[in-house]
Fold each of these.
Amino acid sequence: MSDLQKTQNDVVATSEITNFAEIAILSQNLEKMETTLTLTAEYVELEKPSESFRGVFIGKQVMNITDKSTGEEKQLVAARFLNNKKVYINAGAVLLSELERASVPVGTPLEVTYVRKEGNTKIYEITLLS
């Protein structure tokens, strides 16, 4: 099994409704409910060395992209972060490998800083926040 397949299996979760009575009650109160956070992710791109962003690591997701030069459809894994009730993602290979290497658990507050570029690869520094 490839790393992408393993990640897809980790990321994609299905759930079934097992308690229709609770769901029915929830559905009757939708107009009274407050919004909590936006689940639609926004890509965060760091352009210049020393730029950074902060967020709570909330896992990974698979992104479908089209290669600009070949038009080929590809799948990339992206790290997900929550900041101020919004979800942000970044698919930097070094960022993902650093998160995995350090076994960063979901729920960890982090600062991600773009350090430098080596060839076409962006090098990131990941710092724990407390």
Amino acid sequence: MRSTALAGAIVLSLIGAADAWGTFPGRDGRIAAMVAVRCDEYAGEFDPCVSEGFSELVAVAPGGNGWRSLGHWPCPKCMEGGVLRARLAYSPDGRRMVVEVLTPVIEPATTPSSLVAILASDGSSQVRLGVPGLLGFPTSWLPDGRRVAVFAPGESGVSGRSFVVGADDGAVREVTGGPRGERKWSSTGAVAIAHSRGVYVWNPVTGRRRLILASSDRVTYAAADWSPDGRRLVVLRSEPLTRLQAIVTVAADGGDRRVVLRGPAPGCQFGPPVWAPSGKRIAFTAGCLDLRSAASAVFTVRPSGVGLRTVFVADPLIPKQGSFVAGVGPAVAWRPLSG
């Protein structure tokens, strides 16, 4: 009864907040990603770059013609107050974003907890909110634009607990309906769930769930993101045996599967793909598609698979050559513009 009541409460609030998504398809704003500049794996303990490393939250023009800093956090190992991390998502109106926060582990931990940060779209006005579970990270905003979905992984990394957190008041409620796994809400209120068995689409109104992409020993699916109209999903597909990855799209009912982009070689790692607010392109990170860059980069591509474009490389952020390396993402977020 408790699960049913909670799911019903969420459904009612989503239906009442449909206007928050009324501008979709929207216009494409900037693409946000986290960049970590640090020592490489061969640097010694007393290498100067250990103390000179930093994290940078950047927002990139979708055409690739410029980027701006939304925040700078020196020294990734200096975490007294925690540093922002890779997982992030823009609110439906594009005015705010939610970002994962990495905090120092304090032992003994009586009640495991994590933090997320709510920022204005320009990186200001940071408010940190506590969520249950270690290593909890945000996955998406709910359609009402007032709450965010947070996933706290279990030991397997997929079968953890899901929560919705009030962006203004920090109120936390656990979501228990449907399969367990990382969740993303669509503009229609349907929920995509990345489970160990594959990707489910769950309807909170009817309670119906459908396995639209089934994982197996040969292929796994994860990191699903909704198109702006809620009709399709873009999903990351991996082949454990060949170590090949691909970005695919699929209809919400599991039909009309299409390969957007295949990794060119084994071990070419893609980050979770996200759909543009206009629905015209898909953004993702990869470390193997732009040979000019020594680090991973941000790319966009059309859903048809044509028009691959490099929009950001992190090399200019590296302060000097030597032991420094730069990593981008792996997650990105695409800001919607309304009006």
Amino acid sequence: MEDKFAKYLQLSNRLVITLIALLASLLVLLYAMKLAFGLLDSIPGFVYIFTVFIIMVPTLLFITVFLIYFSRTKKHPSAAVRYLSWGLFMAALLVWVFFLVSDFITFFKTASQQIGSYHSYSVIFLAGSVGLIFIVGIIQALSTPKEKDWMEKRKQRLGH
């Protein structure tokens, strides 16, 4: 009985020490991050570089998604849906490029660090872009032939 109690005591001690070590390492990590980001604020021009990066994030994300969809649309079996998708994606890409240029002009004129003054962060525009992705995906999915499920594939393979 003593041997079991010693094992459980040793296990619980290790768990407590591990928990304390984890909390201590998290505190040290957070403090180091605070110091590192404090140093970044003192670098001249870093705020402007960071703001330019933040302006570019949604544009680069959506342009990448639209280009991936654009390239995958080449394989779609329906020509009408393919041309409709390409038209919608081209329009979206042109609008995103226009807003990126517009946002850079705004940034270089005002140097505003508030994202509310940039078109790329308009909630309506972001929601419209996400909606366009889903709508085109639904249109493409509904215009493809029905995929066979595993039971139909098995029956076909076995010759029934």
